[in-house]
Amino acid sequence: MAEASNLPIVLYHYVHSPYSRRLVWYLTLRQIPYKQCFQPNVLPRPDLKEKLGIAYRRIPLLSVGRDVYLDTRLIIAKLETLFPASAAHPGLGAAADRPEHRLVEALLSRLATDGGFFLRASQLLPPQLVAQRGSRFVRDRADLVGINMAGEVGDAASPFSAESLAARRPEAAAELRQVVELLETTALADGRDWLLGTPGPALADLEVVWVLQWLYRIPGALPAEVVSKALFPRVFSWVERFERAVEEKRARLDDPQTVEGDEAATIIVGAPYAETEVDVDATDPVVAAEGLEKGENVKLWPTDWGYLHKDSGRLVSMDKTEYVIETGGTAGSIRVHAPRHGFKICKVGDGDAAKL
Q: Sign of dihedral through CA atoms 36, 15, 313, 317?
């Protein structure tokens, strides 16, 4: 295992992905250099599927050396561990003596993703904007949420069609307002700059600000009569302050080098692994229930969004927080890491078509 700071980092993403922006902000605030490989905003993505053997369809993905990490929650947690706070890479997460801050970080992360905050925010995309993106985009996003649009099913059946968005917009706006009002009247009510009263932006801020900033910068997304700077001045000033903090940090870094898919895959498979293998705990309830053993062939997939696309490989490691499988494509073998939360694993052929 090599030191993470000596290993190449490759970020697979596309510019307008809010999840990608969350991760780019993290890397920028922590001054962690990386290379980027841009991907189309709809499938297929041969740079991942063919070259690396990764069926997982969500963006972003991040490699550190020969290890590839899925899901921004796991990616950020891994970067927190692989790049401890230092002068070169200033800390963003809670200090060791502030465990209550770690709790707030975790709760805000759950609110944004599991709590439905991002889902409701996505339902505020202007219907005319989605219509401009065309049928291919609408059908791709239907696939993302698990709807097979093949056959005679029309685009209007997609939850991200212009018709569906228009119908869901009032409820989405009402729920978004609840979260914004909560921030305005609690953490930010005393006029502080950052949610936890830290000297600069912290991980707690990042865990929720990315959703609001995304909508804030899409013309027509936020209904002004429900959520606006006039109604919630502290929240919107906080979002703008966060943007300025990121720009100040970005000015200190060289722009990330952009690489094409072939080069990105070569960089990854040619690097050492960032982590050592751990055992598969025979006493783990999932291991016992599924009859899993280290080295056997398994399938792995998310259980919320993108579950129609499953990854196959050899089970390498499994601990209380993550699954690790070995897979590969035309470029060679790699290890893929997925969080246990929100993902399922099973033996190949043992109910792998099930969602849950």
A: positive
First to last CA, the chain: 34
% of the chain residues with pLDDT over 70: 95
User: Per-residue DSSP letters for 84-135?
Assistant: -S-SSS---S--TT-HHHHHHHHHHHHHHTTTSHHHHHHTTS-HHHHHHH-H
- Residue 3 confidence class, pLDDT cut points 50, 70, 90: confident
Is a pLDDT exceeding 50 seen at residue 81?
yes
Number of domains in the chain: 1
pLDDT tens-digit readout, 180-235: 999 999 999 999 999 999 999 999 999 999 999 999 999 999 999 999 999 999 99
Amino acid at 207: E
Residue 161: CATH number of its domain = 1.20.1050
Which residues are CB-neighbours of 207 under 8 A, at least 6 positions away?
105, 108, 109, 112
Which of 121, 103, 243, 104 shows the shortest CA–CA distance to 178? 121
Is residue 332 domain-resident?
Answer: no
- Residue-level pLDDT at 148: 61
In this model, does residue 150 exceed pLDDT 80? no
Residues 6+ apart with CB under 8 A from 202: 92, 93, 94, 101, 105, 194, 195, 196
Residue range(s) defining the domain that contains residue 120: 99-243
Q: How far is Cα 79 from Cα 332, in angstroms, rounded to an integer?
A: 24
In a domain, 63, yes or no: no
pLDDT value at 32 more than 90: yes
Residue 304, domain member (yes or no)? no
Length, in residues, of the chain: 356
Residue 107: partners with Cβ closer than 8 Å, 6 or more residues away:
none
In angstroms, what CA-CA distances link 310 with 119, 306, 354?
22, 9, 11
Residues 6 or more apart whose CB falls under 8 angstroms from that of 115 comprise none
- The pTM for the full model equals 0.94
